[in-house]
Amino acid sequence: MISPVDIWNGIRTGIGPEINPDSLRNWQQKKLEAAIDYAKNNTDYYRDLSGSGDLTDLPFTLPSDLAANPYAFLAIPQNEVARISTHSNSGTTGLRKRIFFSEGDLERTKAFFATGMSTMTVKGDNVRILISNPTEFSLGSLLKESLARIGVSAGISDEIKSAPDAIRDSTGAECLVGQPAELLYMSCISPELRPGSVLLAGDIVPGTVAGRIRENWGCNVFTHYGHTEFGYGCAVDCSAHHGFHLRHADFIFEIVSLKTMQPALPGESGEIVITSLSNEAMPLIRYRTGNISRLIDSPCSCGSNLPRLGAIEGRFNNMVQLSENKTLDIFRIDSVVFADRSVRGMDAEYDTITKTLTLIIDSSDRFDKKMLKEVIPEEVSIKITYAKTDPFYKRGKRKIRVT
User: What does the pLDDT look like over 251-262, one tens digit per residue?
Assistant: First the structure.
């Protein structure tokens, strides 16, 4: 069945079931012109924006720009702001990004969440949300309210301190929403839990991790891609699992070559750049996400012919820069380590003095570090130690700790 997200795109754009790449492109161009005018007329940051009307002629917006002066991006009076999200800006010392949302922005997020979740849940299901807190307008609360619209109940697990806590809360749920490493660990130590479906969100999802969760629990595994700056929800895969179906009605997605910073060639990987078409509180134009992927323009097995996003291949701020052309990437390391079915969890530390990468592996067997040859530069020494590494003890996006 065609992805509910693309059916939603047809409805939201007004194009209808006949939506296709050409009609979508024409619709987005008109919306882009209006979005640029809105940003110029209502924000200090974009007030002097100039360009030919071609999106690729416009300058990029950086996360550091947003962190340096978030109020320069605010397009509505402060008393009309429904929610403010504040969090650290990776790579910008001492600065924190503040993201503003209007009631309309939050409503569009809830509509997208309800659509995406209809792929993996049915009326009467119970969902356990393991990635947020229950405060008003939090990610968990928005998702819970969205699920209620499609007849699905949800519980939010707050203050989880260990995998056993998460397993206890998740017992009986038909669908689990959580971070990849955490749900993999749960599936390894509690294979009997067996939810019907899982949504992996909040971090990059190595294919090996998704595959092992699917194998351990015998469930359908879906993946999500989002950013706080864009209301959390940007894309989700369908039951065919051939790429992320994009929220085209609210955003324009570009892939920019890492070498030239120009539009990437078809199928070429590059940085994801997003332009908002409907953000009221904080419009963002050509915002560099720091995530790496590629666009897929071939039809999906579900029947959709709209462009999709390929798997997320990395994140700049998760990489340890060793030299101009060499990095340590936790995503690539995870892809190799978690391919070993005996590994339940893993933490990584890099010593810049000794150039030693230490992997603390939670495993029922010895791990062969030769498997890492293709993803670790030769000048880096690899040390393997074994210990329990319950990921719920140190929650957050996965990264290599640098000492």
Answer: 999 999 989 999
